[in-house]
């Protein structure tokens, strides 16, 4: 968490360059138009189906690391929730989400996924995220010292 321009994204992308080759890493940028369906599709595109409803990282990688930039940008819906964030919270809590196939809704287990995120301080289009999701992360406030 930190103000715009302090280097949150650059820091994480630098860490991605040092990851073990057995890890796959990818970035998802949130905006006001981000949807839970779009998020689910982007994450599942980095996975291969290994069983009927079990997904593992592509190319036999050990783990997938997803960086979500601007975590608090999705627009709140009528009920005050942010559906993409609720999908992430559901995965962190239960390690699955439901398929979007209307003919047969099943639990899709997304294995070996680690989520890293960054966000700016609430205000100016950025919403405050729910404490239910915030409790799943280690929060670090990233600032540039005054000289």
Report the CATH superfamily. P-loop containing nucleotide triphosphate hydrolases
What overall geometry do the principal axes of the alpha carbons give?
globular
Largest sheet: 4 strands, mixed
Total count of strands? 7
Order of helices and strands: HEHEEEHEEEH
Terminal-residue CA separation: 21 Å
Keywords:
single chain; 147 residues; alpha/beta; Rossmann fold; 4 helices; 23% strand
Give a summary of the structure in a few sentences.
By secondary structure, this protein is α/β, with parallel strands linked by helices.
Can you tell me about this structure?
This protein is an alpha/beta fold and 147 residues long. It has a single domain (8-134), classed as P-loop containing nucleotide triphosphate hydrolases (Rossmann fold, 3-Layer(aba) Sandwich), CATH 3.40.50.300. It has 4 helices and 7 strands; from the N terminus they run H-E-H-E-E-E-H-E-E-E-H. The chain has helices spanning 8-16, 36-44, 83-94, 131-134, and strands spanning 23-29, 47-49, 54-57, 63-69, 96-98, 107-110, 113-118. It has a 4-stranded mixed beta sheet. Strands 1-4-7 form a 3-stranded parallel beta sheet, sandwiched between helices.
Helix and strand arrangement:
Elements: H1 8-16, E1 23-29, H2 36-44, E2 47-49, E3 54-57, E4 63-69, H3 83-94, E5 96-98, E6 107-110, E7 113-118, H4 131-134
Parallel strand pairs: 1-4, 3-6, 4-7
Antiparallel strand pairs: 2-3, 5-6
Helix pairs in contact: 2-3
């Amino acid at each position: 968490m930190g103000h715009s321009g302090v280097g949150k994204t650059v820091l994480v992308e630098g860490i991605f360059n040092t990851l073990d080759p057995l890890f796959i890493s990818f970035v998802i940028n949130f905006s006001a138009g981000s949807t839970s369906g779009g998020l689910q599709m982007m994450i599942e595109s980095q996975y291969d189906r290994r069983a009927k409803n079990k997904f593992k990282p592509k190319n036999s990688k050990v783990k997938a690391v997803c960086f979500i930039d601007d975590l608090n940008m999705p627009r709140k819906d009528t009920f005050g929730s942010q559906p993409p964030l609720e999908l992430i919270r559901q995965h962190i809590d239960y390690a699955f989400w439901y398929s979007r196939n209307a003919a047969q809704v099943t639990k899709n287990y997304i294995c070996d996924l680690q989520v890293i995120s960054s966000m700016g301080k609430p205000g100016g289009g950025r919403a405050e995220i729910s404490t239910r999701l915030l409790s799943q992360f280690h929060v670090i406030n990233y600032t540039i010292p005054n000289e």
